[in-house]
Amino acid sequence: MKCYDCMSRQQSTPAVALCTRCGAGLCLDHAHVAPQIVHESAGTGRSTHSPEARRFTCGLCHEAEV
Questions:
Q1: Considering its fold, how many domains does the chain have in total?
Q2: Per the record, a Pfam family (predicted)?
Q3: What is the pLDDT of residues 3-29, one digit of tens each?
């Protein structure tokens, strides 16, 4: 799979991740990495896990979330 953003610029770069919002392939230069808290149902409430998970987004989805 190739990086979607690089392909739109006529470049061919291997993707190393997928955007968790839109599914686009991302290279290291175009991937935005953020922590994601993982929740799990526990009895009548929720518990969180540590450490936090990684979450990859493309530039477009990253800007839409800010």
A1: 1
A2: DUF2180
A3: 999 999 999 999 999 999 999 999 999
